Request: fold
Amino acid sequence: MASIKASLFGETWVSRARESKDPTSWVSDVMATLDTTGAVYLDSLRLWFDGFPLSAKQKQGLVARIESFKNQEHLGAVNELAWWTFLQRQQFNANPIATTNTSTPDFRVIASSEFFIEVSTLNISEQDQATIQVRDSIALDHSETLRRVLGKVTAEKLKQLSYATERKRPSVLVLFDYTTWSAFGTQFYRFLADFLLGKPLGFQSLPAELSALVYVERKVFNGHVAISRLRSATYYNPFAKYSLPLGTFTSLSEFWCQVVKTESVSPDDWVWL
Reply:
């Protein structure tokens, strides 16, 4: 029996991408710049994917999601790879958890302390997409983004968070923000800190299975992917069943206990992946 080989963006995929007629798909931008920044982006994803420590068979589903022309499927898979790359850059001892029939988080971190990580994405809302397509204006509404963040924690990702609690370990939810205003430097990370750790503490209304929430702003510069240190942050839940040690993610700003903040240990504005 021939061995299974997992690879990304082969000739067949490129041919299909060239024929795509959807101007709203991420593929459209990549194909328009395939000789320059588009190639850099695809090569970065290939490099991350090749180093992702799962078997070729286990990575087949990941291939389909990354190569998907649908933005939500593509971004969800890319963000998992991006966070894995971030963990490696920050020298965490971590392993991805292979997909099973049950709800499991994406990563298990072994050292310096053991905890589990689930990665998720806040995509642009259907309402905003429809508004943009008719070229109408969109109001800046942090409360709507906050509502969607809370939905991730309280409903959509609760099973993945509970996986860690059942093993008596901390659980972290990492949220990549791709909502309409995420790229405009609106300081949503501050708004989120005020809600979670201000008075009253928003964390008190969230599941105790959540040990920490990591909010991430990710951008692509000339095909290269980077995470903002200025507008990404970690928020530690003082009511968690199992606490994540303070200082776990020192390369990002950290918030705890009545909006106490520590700055990133790095002077650079971006973590390049």
Notes: The mean pLDDT is 87. The first helix runs from residue 11 to 19. The chain is about 35% helix and 20% strand.
